[in-house]
Amino acid sequence: MIKIDVHAHILPEHMPNLKEQYGYGDEFIYLDHTGPGKANMMKADGSFFRAIDDLCWDPEAIIRHMDQHGVQMMALSTVPVLFYYWAQPEHTYNWSRFINDHLAGIQRKYPERFVGLGTLPMQDIPLAILEAKRCKIELNLPGVEIATHILNRNLDDEQFYPLYEALEQLDLCIFVHPWDMMGQEHMKKYWLPWLVGMPAETSRAICSMIFGGIFDRFPKLRILFAHGGGCFPHTLGRVSHGYQVRPDLCNVHDVQDPREYVKRFYIDSLVHDEEAFKYNLKLFGADRIALGSDFPFPLGDLEHGKFLEEMKDLDEATRIQVLRDTAKEWLGLK
């Protein structure tokens, strides 16, 4: 079984100290290498963020892991904490070029194993368009990764229209990943920003794009949302009911019932539960769900869809579609 994983992260093994370079930014990240294949992600103020290993940066180590789990190809994207939308636009633009050059270098060296999804300086749309064009024309990347909101501007904001138009014309797919989770200052315990905030962020993004008319205005966009669409699939009944009973609040852009849009975008398979996956499969169809693992982080599916391979009531055509063919369509792979 050939598997293509659309949701995997990587970062450069060595990153510049941006706070020293720019003179501000306690939230910039650097790596403190603590031993062979081990490092700590540190914030520029010296606080610890996360311990990682060489599966976060070494393509050879990643390929060995892929071979163990039957993964032919991964779509690699940066870690959301490295989006840096809060920085000065020209600094995020330069950082995006650094990250995208790194992703493109891996894609060139291992063309049968990796493709890269570029990052953009989303706080400055002209710069984001400029870098999107470079991702397509110069770097040959198939798509880009963006966040569920940009500095608390939802993804339906009119300022993003020129970017969506450009991404349609460039035929770049879009991977939407949660970051900077809303309300996390009120739920610091129990890892709740990752357990509760991330699924809510993804639903926020999907609902904003539906009610904002993005899927109608830009019908050629190929958008995939992380983590099985977050909590959107399992609250769709409530969202649809709200559309029906309060059109004055929900349907201000003359859109269809939200249920009509589940065939207009993609989600990954990362739900950690067979019954939840079956529900998503019934709702979206196999041609809208692609294997995604959130590799190499512990909240991910680090067996890369093994539970899908072992599901007895999943027919072979559905299995192949989810584990390989949906990814090929979304990424635009030949």
Descriptive overview:
The chain is an alpha/beta fold and 334 residues long. The protein has a single domain (80-331), classed as Metal-dependent hydrolases (TIM Barrel, Alpha-Beta Barrel), CATH 3.20.20.140. It is built from twelve helices and 13 strands. An eight-stranded parallel sheet has the order 1-5-6-7-10-11-12-13. It has a three-stranded antiparallel sheet with strand order 2-3-4, with no helix packed on it. Helix 3 runs parallel beside helix 4 (125-137) and helix 4 packs parallel to helix 5 (161-170).
Could you write a compact summary of the structure shown?
The protein has helices at 18-22, 59-68, 89-109, 125-137, 161-170, 192-211, 214-217, 232-245, 247-250, 274-284, 306-310, 316-331; strands at 3-9, 29-35, 38-43, 48-53, 71-77, 114-119, 143-147, 149-150, 153-154, 173-177, 223-225, 266-268, 289-290.
List the helices and strands and how they pair.
Elements: E1 3-9, H1 18-22, E2 29-35, E3 38-43, E4 48-53, H2 59-68, E5 71-77, H3 89-109, E6 114-119, H4 125-137, E7 143-147, E8 149-150, E9 153-154, H5 161-170, E10 173-177, H6 192-211, H7 214-217, E11 223-225, H8 232-245, H9 247-250, E12 266-268, H10 274-284, E13 289-290, H11 306-310, H12 316-331
Parallel strand pairs: 1-5, 5-6, 6-7, 7-10, 10-11, 11-12, 12-13
Antiparallel strand pairs: 2-3, 3-4, 8-9
Helix pairs in contact: 3-4, 4-5
